[in-house]
Design brief:
The structure holds three protein chains of three kinds. By secondary structure, chain A is mainly α. Chain A is built from 15 helices and one strand. Chain A has a domain of 277 residues: Formate dehydrogenase/DMSO reductase fold (Up-down Bundle). Chain A is globular, with a radius of gyration of 22 Å. Chain A starts with a helix and ends in a 10-residue tail after the last helix. Helix content of chain B is 30%, strand content 16%. Chain B is built from ten helices and twelve strands. In chain B, strand 5 and strand 6 form a beta hairpin. Chain B starts with a helix and ends with a strand. The two termini of chain C are 49 Å apart. Chain C is 19% helix and 18% strand. Chain C has one domain. Chain C is built from six helices and nine strands. The chains are: A mainly alpha, B alpha+beta, C alpha+beta. The interface between A and B is large, with 61 and 65 residues.
Chain lengths: 407, 298, 186
């Protein structure tokens, strides 16, 4: 047996080879994503040099598209390990085989989240101020400090699980369950925690009544379990279509069942929030009124919010009443993904700032710089996800194998 | 195989060079940063000699940049037995915004944005509902049926901004003033989201001030010219008040609506106001415990 | 706890001294002596373009100007056109009969013009009390009188005794907000 191939650096080298091998379609996909990523990187470089005045944010609306995408991305990362619950807690054999796809989505999503926070910083060069011991980390008082810990931990857990399973498979060995099963269970609990902590970031602010709701954390978890399954359902079908991998039907059906419940739960939670605010009235309901009908003539967010609501309602109806053919299912997944992206992104962040704490209205629209950087970051996420799936399939297929003799 | 590898190498080179070209503005920006600035410790961790060096460096940079030899940057310590308080007489404020203008000048604010730490709301008499406040009035004041409420940092005793900062770049000093270390802030703007009084400002770009308008008496924690990408806020002009002077906004007020002093001194003006006037604070239900009090006469 | 301190960083804090507490008052509070107490506007410009003023003493020390008028309309020679919008006050409510450059309190006690502050305070007690506690009329200088003096306005610096209501002013520095703006009321 060639020692070099068995070693870890050898493994990494082979991964690089597998990641860059593919069809013309694959190269086209990767090139387009890379181009978008470079455009985003360039826009960010200008933003760092010339200041965040290049964005549409202001002292009134001081968080915007970046943090909206960050919040959504954390949910996606949390929901991606949704599949772990039936696989390990309910011993669903078929689900076991595809759990790793969820893990890969989680890794790519966390990376996207880290990038979104980095581009939102006014002084990214000062990141080292966050490192405990060297900087001054405000743990446990600042919720942002908790968020950094849980997100980093989640990334490491998922990297470990995926890396370990791949490496043992590559070496032709059976994975030792005590090296990964505890981490799998930990990742489920940790997934709940990453999104609850992110919700607490917002709900802990007494000065922002729109966010200062006890329902925010539960709502975050529910919508995480909308976007995660929705994305994975479509992703599994894509893998089935574009590769030789055999994806059983069971996992897709399980995830669809989960999606049906969570999308209804989200609509119920929205109705609850809407009733609570609008029935009692007063100025603490102003932000919700701003999103739904506009306030004092400012209506820029209204079409977005109603689109999100429409997407979620149509998606729920499709899942409940229409036969589960692939195209309706995929449409429902796409609609619910979009609906939650708007609702949890712009539909959550912007009304938190409008009206402002002094009840003033200064509207916000993302600038071209923000769109470019955001597109670039999602492109990077898709790049990482594509590479991850490619490598995983190669290893699981046996094409990437230390024991075989390759020339 | 060979061709494939060659194509991969070409592709990687193209990608790398595109990325390098994209990063050029970042390299330009990085050139403006020195290693000393990058590694500078938190204000609270600076030993006296280190602090002196930092202040000297900031002075030199400011003198060179603005061509002014009279720039001094100090780091006055809080005085023993002093806790600042500020009161504002809503019966007497006429809404002229001279306080906001004085703040703009005193604190070396960016000229292009007319930035100021003070925001004055024109309110309807009979209501304290901020929803009906208007900061954009431009008619002669005081207008009939209105009263005027300037709002600035309340230097809260239980400040939400201090709680949420992930790197402790903002904290409350012993004399009650909540300060920001501009060289430590990472610009995440969580404090700006947390503040219930719209008191915090962010430097969306590097501030621009004509050299002849620069206020040369500067404090490290207060009115020195701030860098791009960091937070700032009202500091009760601590470069003045820690030397016994009144804040610039108070001096500018033509009607005497502003009262400032030491809350620990029972004979101070601020204590007299608290004892003899009907005093209230904004958003008391949030539990922020501000040091900024509002009152009406008689 | 040690772990928390090292994470937090406060174990690295440099020792910080405090500045000394405020000492006893060593400086005075000065009240500005307004030129309105000793001169009056002529309504014409000087040769250098400033508002012309003439000292009260110029006439009142020389001529017998015993206060005969009770209302401004009764003035025959000088100070014609003087508007008085100060409640229902007559000239002699404040100005001494026989010597208009002197004042008198309601008790009959005579006051020099330089003591006008006491006269204002006689009716406007609450404002005087606020003024004494630096809560009316503005202030330049120091809150800590051990470090420096302070200077305050005199009543007449802001309030013309004959027409004391303060008029309107044009506000400065309207805020410029980035992003969309809603016109008018919010």
């Amino acid at each position: 047996m060639n020692e070099k191939k068995l070693s870890y650096p050898g493994f990494l080298w082979k991964i690089l080879g597998a990641a860059t091998d593919g069809s013309v379609r694959f190269y086209l996909w990767m090139t387009v994503l890379t181009a978008i990523a470079v455009v985003g990187a360039s826009a960010w470089a200008y933003q760092v040099r010339d200041g965040m005045a290049l964005t549409g944010m202001s002292d009134h609306v001081s968080w915007g598209l970046y943090i909206a995408n960050f919040t959504f991305g954390v949910g996606l990362a949390a929901g991606a390990v949704m599949m772990v619950i039936p696989a390990y807690l309910y011993d669903d054999e078929e689900m076991h085989e595809v759990v790793i796809v969820g893990e890969l989505l989680a890794i790519a999503s966390i990376l996207v989240c880290i990038l979104f926070v980095t581009v939102d910083l006014g002084r990214p060069d000062r990141f080292w101020h966050l490192i405990p011991g060297i900087g001054r980390f405000n743990w446990p008082i600042s919720m942002l400090s908790w968020d950094i810990i849980v997100l980093s931990g989640y990334l490491l857990i998922n990297l470990h699980i995926t890396g370990y399973l791949l490496y043992t498979r590559y070496r032709g060995q059976k994975p030792n369950s005590s090296w990964y099963v505890p981490f799998v269970f930990l990742s489920v609990v940790w997934a709940i925690s990453i999104h609850s902590v992110t919700a607490f970031l917002y709900s802990g602010l007494g000065g922002r009544p729109f966010w200062n709701s006890a329902l925010l954390a539960p709502r975050f978890i529910v919508t995480a379990f909308v976007t995660g399954p929705a994305f994975v359902i479509v992703l599994l079908q894509l893998i089935r279509r574009l590769t030789r991998a055999k994806i059983p039907d069971g996992p897709i059906q399980t995830l669809t069942r989960v999606l049906k419940i969570t999308i209804l739960a989200n609509l119920f939670m929205f109705a609850s929030e809407a009733f609570t605010a609008l029935y009692s009235g007063g100025s603490h309901a102003a932000a919700l009124r701003y999103s739904l009908v506009g306030l004092h003539g400012s209506t820029i967010l209204v079409p977005w919010v109603w689109t999100a609501l429409g997407c979620n309602v149509v998606s729920a109806l499709l899942l409940l009443f229409v036969r589960p053919e692939a195209r309706w299912l995929n449409l429902a997944c796409g609609l619910s993904f979009l609906g939650v992206w708007i609702e949890k992104g712009m539909g959550l962040i912007i009304p938190g700032f409008i009206p402002s704490t002094l009840h003033e209205i200064v509207e916000y629209a993302p600038s071209l710089t923000e769109w470019r950087i955001s597109a670039g970051i999602w492109a990077v996420g898709l790049l990482v996800l594509t590479v991850g799936i490619k490598v995983v399939l190669a290893v699981l297929d046996g094409r990437l194998d230390a024991t075989a003799d390759h020339s | 195989m060979e061709r494939r590898v060659a194509l991969k190498v070409v592709g990687a080179t193209l990608g790398a060079s595109a990325f390098a070209a994209a990063m050029k503005p970042l390299a330009e920006w990085a050139e403006t940063l020195t290693a000393e600035q990058f590694l500078q410790k938190h204000f609270k961790e600076l030993e006296p000699e280190e602090l002196a060096r930092v202040l000297e460096r900031i002075e030199e940079d400011a003198r060179a940049k603005y061509g002014r030899t009279d720039v001094t940057v100090r780091a006055d310590a809080p005085m023993e037995g002093v806790e600042f308080g500020y009161a504002l007489n809503l019966s007497v404020c006429i809404g002229c915004r001279k306080c906001a203008e004085a703040c703009h000048r005193e604190n070396n604010h960016d000229r292009a944005s007319d930035n100021s730490y003070i925001r004055v709301l024109e309110m309807d008499q009979g209501s304290l509902d901020l929803e009906h406040g208007n900061a954009h009035y431009d008619h002669p004041v005081p207008a009939p049926g209105k009263f005027y409420m300037p709002i600035q940092c309340q230097q809260c005793r239980n400040a939400p901004c201090v709680k949420v900062c992930p790197v402790q770049a903002t904290w409350q000093e012993e004399d009650g003033i909540v300060v920001v270390d501009y060289d430590w802030c990472i610009g995440c703007r969580y404090c700006e989201a947390a503040c219930p009084y719209h008191a915090r400002r962010f430097n969306w770009q590097a501030p621009t001030i004509p050299a002849d308008e620069l206020n040369p008496d500067q404090g490290y924690l207060s009115n020195r010219v701030r860098p791009q990408g960091v937070m700032e806020k009202c500091t009760f002009c601590l470069h003045r008040t820690r030397r016994g002077q009144v804040p610039a906004c108070l001096e500018a007020c033509p009607t005497g609506a502003r009262v400032f002093g030491n809350l620990r001194d029972p004979n101070s003006d601020i204590r007299w106001v608290l004892a003899n006037k009907r005093v209230f604070v904004l958003k008391e239900e949030l539990g922020t415990k501000p040091r900024f009090y509002y009152y009406f006469d008689g | 706890m040690a772990l928390l301190a090292s994470v937090w960083g406060c174990s690295n804090d440099a020792p910080r001294h405090r500045a000394p507490a405020p000492g006893p008052a060593a400086f005075a509070t000065e009240i500005h002596v307004s030129e309105r107490l000793t001169s009056i506007e002529t309504g014409e410009e000087t040769t250098v373009g400033t508002a012309g003023r003439v000292a009260c003493a110029t006439c009142h020390d020389v001529v017998d100007t015993g206060a005969r008028a009770k209302k401004p309309e009764e003035l025959e020679a000088f100070h014609r056109g003087l508007q008085v919008t100060h409640g229902n006050l007559a000239c002699t409510s404040c100005h001494a009969t026989g010597d208009p450059t002197a004042l008198h309190l309601a008790t009959g006690e005579m006051l020099a013009m330089s003591e006008a502050l006491r006269l204002c305070s006689q009716c406007h007690g609450p404002q005087r009390t606020s003024f004494d506690h630096n809560a009316h009329g503005g202030l330049n200088g120091h809150w800590d009188l051990s470090r420096g003096p302070r200077l305050k306005n005199h009543c007449v610096d802001c309030h013309d005794p004959h027409a004391p209501a303060i008029g309107q002013v044009v506000p400065v520095l309207e805020p410029k907000d980035r992003g969309g703006q809603v016109e008018g009321k919010h």
